[in-house]
Amino acid sequence: MTGRADTEPRAGAGSGLQDEAGFRADGETGLEDGAGSEPEAAFEPGPGLNDGDPFSRQRLLDGWRPELLAAATVVVAGVGALGNEVARILAMSGVGRLILTDPDTIETSNLSRAVLFRAGDVGRPKASTAAAALRELAPWTVVDARDRSLAAGVGLAELREATVVAGCLDSRA
Description:
Elements: H1 66-70, E1 73-77, H2 81-93, E2 97-101, H3 126-137, E3 142-146, H4 150-153, H5 156-161, E4 164-167
Parallel strand pairs: 1-2, 1-4, 2-3
C-alpha cells in the first residue's frame, strides 16, 4: 500500500479496471471477439485530487517532501535536448529555483529534441527562451537565465550555494 491512497482503485487480475489504453492489469484488453466494449469500471478521482494543488498527486506518496524541493536551487548547465528535459521535469516537480546557463542560440535542429523551444525561437538564446517557457509552465519555480557559459554565467557563490548542479552539456568547451 506504500505510495497509494486508500481511496484510489487498484487494478489487479480479475478486477476489471483498465488503464487509459484499455488494458487491464492482467494484460487483457477486455474486448470480446474483436468487438469494442466500454470499460467495466471508470476511475473517479478521490477527494483532494482536483483541489487546485498542482502537486496533489505527489502528496499521496508516502515520504513525499515538497518543502525540500521548494527550498532547492538547481543550476542546469546546458539547455539543449538533455537540459531542456532536466529543467522541465525539475520545474514541474516543484524545485524552488532554477539557474539555466547556455551560451548558444536555438537552431532548427534543436526543435525536434527540445520541448521548450518553438519554430519562432530559432536564433534566440537557449537559456532565456527556456526560462520564459518554464515560467509559464511552472509559475511556482523561480527561473533565472544566463546566456553565457557556465564559467562566465554563474558565480562561484551561486555554485557553492546550489543544492545540485546538473551538467547537461554537449561538449567540454
